[in-house]
Design brief:
With about 260 residues, the protein is of the alpha/beta class. It folds into two domains: about 1-220, Spore Coat Polysaccharide Biosynthesis Protein SpsA, Chain A (Alpha-Beta Complex), CATH 3.90.550.10; about 225-260, no CATH class. Helix content is about 35%, strand content about 20%. It contains eight helices and nine strands. Strands 1, 2, 3, 4, 5, 6, 7, 8 and 9 form a nine-stranded mixed β-sheet that branches. Strand 1 (about 15-20), helix 2 and strand 2 (about 45-50) form a beta-alpha-beta unit. Mean pLDDT is about 90; it is low at about 1-10.
Length: about 260
Amino acid sequence: MSDEREKNSVVLGPKISIITVCYNAETLIERTIRSVLSQTYANIEYVIVDGNSTDKTMDVIRDIFSKNPVETWHATSLQIVSEPDTGIYDAMNKGLTLATGDYVWFINAGDEIYEPTTLENLMPFFEQNADVIYGDTVRVDEGRNVLGLREKRPPKTFTWKTFRMGMMVCHQSILIAKNIAPKYDLHYKISADIDWIIRAMKQAKVVCNSHQILSRFLIGGFSKQREKQSWKERFVIMKKHYGLLQTLIFHVFISVRFLFK
């Protein structure tokens, strides 16, 4: 693999900090890491934040990088941290603190960058000094079977007001300039990513639709209890950003659409 990387890793642009958060992900983490290592884009900082896994996650990570040292895939740097955290968003905040790139991109355990040329294909948008670059997402199951694109497709144009209609852009398919990326609000346990994107978008001046698929997103099962908590958090987040009236109107619209499906 390293010989092929040396031939293909020729594209150099702004530093991209790819952040992977994981916990007890020994069966998932390798695919995620290899999707980063396979990139034909050279200026990557890879940050892995493990939540002190009790399975073999760290053994898998160490084994991969012992066979693929940083210089063989032309990365700028590799940072690996394994320590307890208070939840996924605490871990993601650690990743943001460690990241030194021009852009941050969260590709968490089980998810993958879509193809080896994905970052290379974003060069035109880096050259525009975009604050935010977004794209589409393919859903996969645990057997890596493709389930199709997300039902909510990325809008042609995207502003902070777009999320009034729900999470129109998948968290795994958005790159945000580090200088406008806030920390995650740890008051939210399930839906802090929505709040994070909205707050970043409020600071963005140049937003680019890549018109490309950027990631593969692993579908996970939500318990009824977590689904209920997620809706509560989303309501609070939307009310904070859009006001009570618009939030109520949106939820009535969603309920009606669900009834007549």
